[in-house]
């Protein structure tokens, strides 16, 4: 049922009257078998309170119940956020690939583990648990035979496909860490990540194929490894039929896999050994390699997958994220496989070959939970309802959203048109750093209300806190502040690879004793959380996180550029788009259009296409404080045409710099912001 008042907060899926009376509380043990021993706990909110106040009992029970251990853990946790020390389930030994594969092969070997939705529509391939275990063992043996040892880090630069999943799990099987690099990153970005991770082994494919276009992944790896002295071997799998030039360090992967045994002894790993590194952007130019470890990460991914999406045995889970991002890791691979689920690997794009692709896939694969990004939903809603209605979506039970705020229009379309008002929409807030979902509308008591555009409720074990500008905890509701998490949880990242100091400075020191997320949030009168956006210089373009400093570093490498300032501005499909202010060196005589093209070329070569500026404005100088810091806050206001709230400009070294930029913009007398920027889009 809908109430329309035009504002997000009043557009609610209403709670049933029974729930309001408190009569429809769930049977806690039936809902969550792990909770049987939690005396006196009833209902979802009771469980949440228990998970936070008796965190050790909660996580111990869940870890014993949900994971298979080679040796039981002796301590549930040993954490001190103020010192950046985070350890869970110490003394325990386990193997993540055994948890994701072998134990399901024992009970249901022929259950489908992966449904690979290849780029070519209608050519999906299914892999059973038995088949995925065999493939993983062959890769594990292959890596071992080629000298990959426990503690090494293998870089994986592949499209979303079963062999990429088998490669991740093979690393886990033999005790190596993996470092998956999104296959849209450039050779330079790949090289930087290989060097930082000190990988001697890379796994790739000859070519990728996405949206019908060929991606020369092996060639990109060839270029990257030229500046990576650590790399000794590159395994090359064949995604397409086109042969590629092989060098002395390259190994034909499938051919060599055939020679390997289908049994591979799993390594007994300590709970706190590294499972993987995943690079993400921060507010400096250098991406950070977040470190996730074995038991805590897997447990958290599994538990959130089960309860946020209400995943049940036999369901088909469709997460359309690329494996190169944390969402692909936690909800494309580890969460569903730890739960013995069937997971879809989506290799294509939402509009290939047409805007019906997702829903055609939902019908063909009978997907029960669909998990996607707001940017794709916003894009698809523009193509109209016909593309959705053409297909049968009666299999759908839950719809999920991740990566960026979902605006009310997109939420409503997702709920009404895609889900036919039958399926709860879960707007899930989390980060690469958190390992899994931390705030989401579900799990909650049956029929509990869901407010559009709000992540709402903390997951089990999560205790959010909002901080004011003086660093004090805000206690009341109807308040906004910096979002922190007040106690550790098993899924959180442990450190930044080779840079624990940066981990401390970024997450632990801003609010001592708390984990700082970098996001702002609003807590409503009812106590629900709504994410208001980043507080640092990180922007979110089509759900892809990118630091403005990274883009500036690339732009500044152009010989004609003296300096630059990059900011994000609202974009109706991408969520945020990239705006670059560029100051040229004196006596540079180049056409602006040529220079814009050149700058875009540099950014896509140094980082990736998605990081390219949508708009470039050449200016004489940038607004700076007297200490020389660029005032990006002011530039953001100028770009958003919010000139009345430019704020205090008295700290500017030369306030005339802002006026110059405003005048330059107003010469272009367009009333509508989108129109202005589209017209001048670089
Ligand atoms: C943003 C993606 C609003 C947020 C899983 C966060 C969101 C960053 C939401 C992490 C959401 C993620 N609503 N904003 N539901 N989910 N974000 O590391 O700014 O790629 O800090 O992890 O995305 O991006 P990351």
Kindly state the percentage of residues in helix: 25-40%
Number of helices: 22
Global outline: globular
Mean pLDDT over all positions: 92
**Number of DSSP-assigned strands:** 30
Broad structural category: alpha/beta
Please report the distance between the alpha carbons of the first and last residues.
Answer: 44 Å
Uncertain spans, ≥5 residues at pLDDT below 50? 1-11, 13-24, 669-682
- Which value, in Å, is the CA radius of gyration? 25 Å
Share of residues in strands: 15-25%
* Cofactors, ions, other ligands: 5'-O-[(S)-ethoxy(hydroxy)phosphoryl]adenosine
| Strand arrangement, major sheet | 12-11-8-6-7-14-15-23
Query: Major β-sheet, in short?
Result: 8 strands, mixed
How would you portray this structure in words?
There is one protein chain. Mean pLDDT is 92; it is low at 1-11, 13-24 and 669-682. 32% of the residues lie in helices and 21% in strands. The chain has 22 helices and 30 strands. The strands form 8 sheets. Strands 12-11-8-6-7-14-15-23 form an 8-stranded mixed beta sheet, with helices on both faces. With 682 residues, the chain is an alpha/beta fold. It is globular. Helix 3 crosses helix 4 (55-66), helix 6 (129-145) packs across helix 7 and helix 8 packs across helix 9 (217-225). The relative contact order is 0.09. Bound molecules: 5'-O-[(S)-ethoxy(hydroxy)phosphoryl]adenosine. 5'-O-[(S)-ethoxy(hydroxy)phosphoryl]adenosine is lined by residues 280, 325-327, 402-405, 427-432, 455, 517-519, 531, 534, 540, 545. The site of 5'-O-[(S)-ethoxy(hydroxy)phosphoryl]adenosine has 22 residues, from helix 12, strand 20, strand 24 and strand 25.
């Amino acid at each position: 049922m809908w109430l329309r008042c035009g504002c997000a907060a009043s557009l609610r899926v209403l709670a049933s009257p029974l729930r309001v009376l408190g009569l429809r509380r769930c049977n806690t043990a039936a809902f969550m078998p792990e909770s049987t021993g939690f005396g006196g706990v009833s209902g979802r909110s009771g469980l949440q309170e228990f998970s936070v106040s008796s965190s050790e009992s909660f996580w111990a029970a869940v870890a014993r119940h949900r994971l298979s251990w080679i040796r039981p853990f002796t301590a549930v946790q040993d954490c001190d956020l103020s010192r950046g020390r985070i350890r869970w389930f110490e003394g325990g030994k386990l193997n993540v690939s055994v948890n994701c594969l072998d134990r399901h092969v024992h009970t249901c070997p022929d259950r489908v583990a992966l449904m690979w939705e290849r780029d070519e529509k209608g050519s999906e391939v299914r892999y059973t648990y038995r088949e995925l275990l065999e493939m993983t063992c062959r890769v594990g043996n292959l890596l071992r035979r080629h000298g990959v040892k426990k503690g090494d880090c293998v870089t994986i630069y592949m499209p979303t496909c079963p062999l990429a999943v088998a490669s991740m799990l093979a690393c886990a099987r033999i005790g190596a860490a993996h470092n998956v690099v999104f296959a849209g990153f450039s050779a330079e970005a790949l090289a930087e990540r290989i060097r930082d991770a000190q990988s001697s082994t890379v796994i790739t494919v000859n070519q990728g194929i996405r949206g019908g276009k060929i991606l020369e992944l092996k060639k990109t790896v060839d270029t990257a490894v030229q500046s990576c002295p650590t790399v000794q071997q590159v395994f090359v799998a064949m995604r397409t039929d086109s042969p590629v030039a092989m060098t002395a360090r390259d190994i034909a992967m499938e051919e060599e896999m055939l020679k390997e045994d289908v049994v591979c002894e799993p390594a007994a790993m300590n709970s706190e050994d590294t499972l993987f590194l995943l690079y993400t952007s921060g507010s400096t130019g250098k991406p950070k390699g977040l470190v996730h470890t074995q038991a805590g990460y897997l447990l958290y991914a599994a538990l959130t997958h089960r309860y946020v999406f209400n995943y049940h045995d036999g369901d088909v889970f469709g997460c359309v994220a690329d494996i190169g991002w944390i969402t692909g890791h936690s909800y494309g691979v580890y969460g569903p496989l730890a739960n013995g689920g069937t997971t879809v690997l989506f290799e294509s794009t939402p509009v290939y070959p047409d805007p019906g692709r997702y829903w055609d896939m939902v019908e063909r694969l009978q997907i029960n939970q669909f998990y996607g990004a707001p940017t794709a939903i916003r894009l698809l809603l523009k193509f109209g309802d016909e593309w959705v209605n053409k297909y049968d979506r009666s299999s759908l039970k839950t719809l999920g959203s991740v990566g960026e705020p979902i605006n009310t229009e997109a939420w409503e379309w997702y709920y009404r048109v895609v889900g036919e008002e039958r399926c709860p929409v879960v707007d899930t807030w989390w980060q690469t750093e958190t390992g899994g979902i931390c705030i989401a509308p579900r799990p909650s008591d049956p029929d509990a209300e869901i407010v559009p555009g709000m992540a709402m409720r903390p997951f089990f074990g999560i205790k959010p806190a909002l901080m004011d500008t003086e660093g004090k905890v805000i206690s009341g509701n109807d308040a906004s502040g910096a979002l922190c998490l007040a106690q550790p949880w098993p899924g959180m990242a442990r450190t930044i690879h080779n840079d624990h100091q940066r981990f401390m400075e970024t997450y632990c020191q801003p609010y001592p004793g708390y984990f700082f997320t970098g996001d702002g949030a609003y807590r409503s009168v009812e106590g629900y959380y709504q994410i208001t956006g980043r507080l640092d210089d990180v922007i979110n373009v089509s759900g892809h996180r990118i630091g403005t400093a990274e883009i500036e570093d690339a732009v500044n490498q152009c010989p004609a550029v003296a300096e630059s300032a990059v900011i994000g501005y609202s974009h109706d499909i991408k969520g945020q788009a990239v705006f670059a202010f560029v100051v040229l060196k004196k006596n540079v005589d180049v056409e602006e259009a040529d220079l814009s093209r050149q700058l875009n070329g540099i950014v896509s070569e140094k980082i990736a296409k998605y990081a390219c500026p949508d708009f470039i404005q050449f200016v004489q100088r940038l607004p700076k404080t007297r200490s020389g810091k660029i005032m990006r806050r002011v530039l953001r206001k100028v770009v958003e045409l919010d000139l009345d709230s430019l704020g205090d400009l008295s700290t500017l070294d030369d306030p005339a710099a802002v006026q110059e930029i405003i005048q330059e913009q107003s010469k272009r007398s367009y009333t509508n912001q989108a129109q202005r920027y589209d017209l001048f889009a670089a």
